Automatic annotation (TrEMBL):
This is Uncharacterized protein. It comes from the Bacteria.
Length: 28
């Protein structure tokens, strides 16, 4: 995997983590 591809994957993972954080908050 190239560094560029890894950077894009990390960005997408960050978005998923943010969504997961919101779900966790709603779950309480």
């Amino acid at each position: 995997m190239s560094a560029k591809e890894f950077g894009v994957s990390a960005k997408e993972f960050g978005v998923s983590a943010k969504e997961f954080g919101v779900s966790a908050k709603e779950f309480g």
